[in-house]
Amino acid sequence: MYVEGIRDLMDLLIKHPFLPPAEKDSNTKLIQTKAVDRFFPVYEQALAQSGGGYLVGGQLSKADVQVFEVVLMVEEKLPSILSSFPQLQAFQSRMRNVPAIQKFLQPGSQRKPQPDDNYVKTVREVLRF
After folding, report:
1. pLDDT (tens digit, 9 = 90+) per residue, 65-105?
2. Burial of 110 (0-12, 13-18, 19+ CB in 10 A)
3. Which H or E element spans position 94?
4. DSSP helix/strand/coil, 85
5. Whole-angstrom Cα distance, residue 15 to residue 20?
6. CA–CA separation, 9 and 30 (whole Å)
7. Neighbours of 109 (CB within 10 A)
């Protein structure tokens, strides 16, 4: 349920770098609105009710990793977005401390950075769009 629910938000985030400049502001606002009004309150409530610090029970699941990823991506665009979501803040902190995730988030890891202009240009050339 949680994993399927983030697809909408993830789609907005993934397409953002490839939008025309005139559409980027409205897409950023849409990301913020959907995160704050629709998705984050659901995750906040689930975390509060689970009692185990994770979305589903007391152990790490695929849902946790995927929610962590999408929230991380939103935070990179909108750094203060979690200010009204203490459960999500604590969740993100816990997830950052999982050894494998901590290693993955370190500079020089296999984690891909946010797309820059050069990346967008290359993708456009390769995919011819």
Report:
1. 999 999 999 999 999 999 999 999 999 999 999 999 999 99
2. exposed
3. helix 86-96
4. coil
5. 10
6. 9
7. 10
